[in-house]
Amino acid sequence: MKINITIKVIIIISLSLFITCSNNKKNIKELKKIPLIYSKNYNIKFLGIQKLHPFDTERPKKIHKYLTGKYGFTKEQFYKPELVTQEELLKVHTQKYLRSLNHSKVIAEIAEMPAIKYLPAFVLKNKLLKPMKYATGGTILGTDVAIEHGFAINLSGGYHHAKANSGEGFCFFADINIAVKKLKEKHNIKSIMIIDLDAHQGNGHESIIKNDTTIHIFDVYNKDIYPDDEDVKQYIDYNFPISKNTKDADYLTIIKEELPKAIKESKPDFIIYNAGTDIFKGDLLGMLSVSEEGIISRDEIVFKNAIENKIPVLMLLSGGYSKKSADITAKSIENILIKHFK
Ligand SMILES: [Zn+2]
Questions:
Q1: pLDDT digit string, tens, across residues 307-323
Q2: CB-proximal residues (5 Å) to ion ligand 1
Q3: Which residues does residue 271 pair with via DSSP β-bridges, in sequence order?
Q4: Interval between CA 221 and ligand 1 midpoint (Å)
Q5: What is the chain's percent helix, strand, coil content, to nearest 5?
């Protein structure tokens, strides 16, 4: 009799545990996906490398932490990318260039960190290139997510200096151009606009796109800093070089007045938005003077123009070299979610 009662109690506890577990799983599954793409593999951290370059290599993690902390999003609600495949990379890059990334010297030059050329290539490939391959996979996945939700934000990517047969400016893989290929091949998108509002000229995607009339490039950049790539400026359809220390009013006037005209004229079916925060007034490399509020307004204007015209938009984070970059980006993404995520 005593044994029977014990068995009954065990069965009841097991059943209730099973039901609780099933319910938890069900609840998680039922939680709505948010159109943000993130992987913990995006973050770069090894041997103090994050101190050798002003770029905040853990920005994705900080933004993810801010949003999950404030809104209680679970990790299952984010879209999780796969590594970009060799086949996908070869859609844009030459085999010769990809092979050159087996050498520490080449990696160190592109990353602008001479000191790391003494490290074995396998370490650099695993700790530095792999996170960027995940981020490139995130940009590729972002095309599907943006088409499904109307917009998507990859919490990394935007490597706009990478060219077909070379890398530069901390950019190894031309994720924007690979996404363009995918939009055309998988989604049959005919016309794409790249809005590049990072402080630096997007010479990588410009050099790959060249005279392709189905891609329209809108680029606002500081003309007084790197890369000043004269050869490829001819491929920018809407070219807005601006001067050092440009402030909110002048900067935002260009976006407010010129972007609607450009969209109306080129009628894109999809927008890739490169949203570098290195236009911030405290940024070491961007050398512009746009405030935090100015950056949030800028992103909002781009989203408003895309969403009101029913054009799917994929935002990529690109550059950002001030200590406040992660915080500003997180707040801007929060603003976009509040206004546009239904
Ligand atoms: Zn930049």
A1: 999 999 999 999 999 99
A2: 198-200, 276, 278, 319
A3: 193, 313
A4: 9
A5: 50, 10, 35
